[in-house]
């Protein structure tokens, strides 16, 4: 059962008790007891009645009783229900707004430096670890390197001509080895100068088309004479099958043609692999910048992330900002801060792109 369905099943009294328990826990970090609630609820309800309501909420999986305490704290499901259905988001505090606005004072600075500063300010304002997912850099390349991190994980290190460096994670095609990745990088670095990543991929697409055309031309005579046939019409998986009697022909020209075809096949396969590497590099996850005590926070199971995407001038999502902290974050305050920061960064990216 999802949080919204559970929320619709609660009557007004259960909803009020649940809301007060969550707000009390988020404020103090301590379990909230029935006696405390009986003194703060607007309608006069006895502590015994509140205990019964809390037991029902515990049965629904929304509250939990830690250890031997008589008080209750919200479960993960309870926090989700509260955030989705009962959270009262405050207006952004003017002091918080001013602290975030101040980070973009020097517009002459590099976008990366400004985003770094935004992340630091966000961490300072919220007292949590901040996260900034930066937009991908699209500029002429200087160098590219593929690093194998395991059979299903690899890193591409991209050095741009303007000095910017990015690391992107991707899942390599099956069967690729560290040596094949080095070979791909060596080939690309011979072609890379002055080209962006997408332009480099277009070069590879043209190379593949050219190799395919050479193969078709060279193999046409063999196919026409019945000495060979294509196993598939699909360009990505076609193979030239040489019939048995071609192997019996003692003809030097045929042997040379077959060697040339074999060489072209090898070259075509290599370029297809490289093109796939480039596509995966373009689609790979951008660099995430964590500021603050994120290591400790991520080692805790009870941590929360409040995140909001930001957009460029074309209203396309190009990154995200967020705050990581303990589950008892002050969500009502943090949510508008993260939302405003995302809008701020979106304006920065848009302004830079229109210069």
Automatic annotation (TrEMBL):
Q: Please explain the role this protein plays, according to its UniProt record.
A: Negative regulator of class I heat shock genes (grpE-dnaK-dnaJ and groELS operons). Prevents heat-shock induction of these operons.
Instruction: Name it.
Output: Heat-inducible transcription repressor HrcA
User: Cross-referenced NCBIfam families, in alphabetical order?
Assistant: hrcA (TIGR00331)
Q: Which UniProt keywords apply?
A: Repressor, Stress response, Transcription, Transcription regulation
Q: Name the Pfam families on file.
A: HrcA (PF01628)
> Where's the Heat-inducible transcription repressor HrcA C-terminal domain?
113-335
- Spell out the family assignment given in the record's similarity comment: Belongs to the HrcA family.
User: Is GTP-binding there in the keyword field?
Assistant: no
């Amino acid at each position: 059962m999802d949080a919204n369905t559970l929320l619709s099943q609660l009557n007004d009294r259960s909803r009020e008790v649940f809301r007060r328990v969550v707000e009390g826990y988020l404020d103090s970090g301590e379990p909230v007891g029935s006696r405390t609630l009986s003194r703060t609820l607007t309608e006069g309800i006895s502590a015994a009645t509140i205990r019964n309501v809390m037991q029902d909420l515990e049965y629904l999986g929304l509250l939990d009783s830690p250890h031997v305490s008589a008080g209750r704290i919200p479960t993960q499901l309870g926090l989700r229900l509260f955030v989705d259905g009962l959270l009262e988001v405050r207006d952004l505090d003017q002091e918080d707004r001013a602290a975030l606005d101040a980070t973009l004072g020097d517009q002459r600075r590099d976008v990366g430096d400004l985003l770094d500063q935004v992340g630091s300010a966000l961490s300072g304002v919220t007292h949590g670890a901040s996260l900034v997912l930066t937009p991908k850099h699209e500029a002429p390349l200087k160098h590219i390197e593929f690093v194998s991190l395991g059979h299903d994980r690899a890193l591409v290190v991209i050095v741009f001509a303007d000095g910017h460096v990015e690391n992107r994670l991707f899942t390599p095609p099956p069967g690729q080895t560290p040596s094949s990745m080095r070979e791909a990088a060596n080939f690309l670095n011979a072609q890379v100068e002055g080209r962006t990543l997408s332009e480099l991929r277009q070069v590879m697409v043209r190379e593949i088309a050219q190799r395919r055309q050479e193969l078709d031309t060279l193999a046409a005579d063999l196919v026409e004479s019945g000495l060979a046939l294509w196993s598939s019409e699909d360009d990505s998986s076609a193979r030239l099958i040489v019939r048995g009697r071609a192997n019996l022909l003692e003809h030097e020209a045929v042997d040379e043609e077959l060697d040339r075809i074999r060489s072209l096949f090898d070259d075509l396969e290599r370029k297809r692999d490289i093109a796939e590497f480039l596509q995966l590099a373009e689609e790979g996850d951008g660099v995430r910048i964590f500021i603050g005590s994120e290591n400790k926070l991520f080692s805790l199971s009870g941590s929360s992330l409040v995140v909001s995407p930001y957009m460029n001038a074309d209203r396309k999502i190009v990154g995200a900002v967020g705050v990581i902290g303990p589950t008892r974050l002050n969500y009502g305050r943090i949510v508008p801060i993260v939302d405003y920061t995302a809008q701020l960064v979106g304006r920065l990216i848009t302004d830079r792109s229109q210069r």
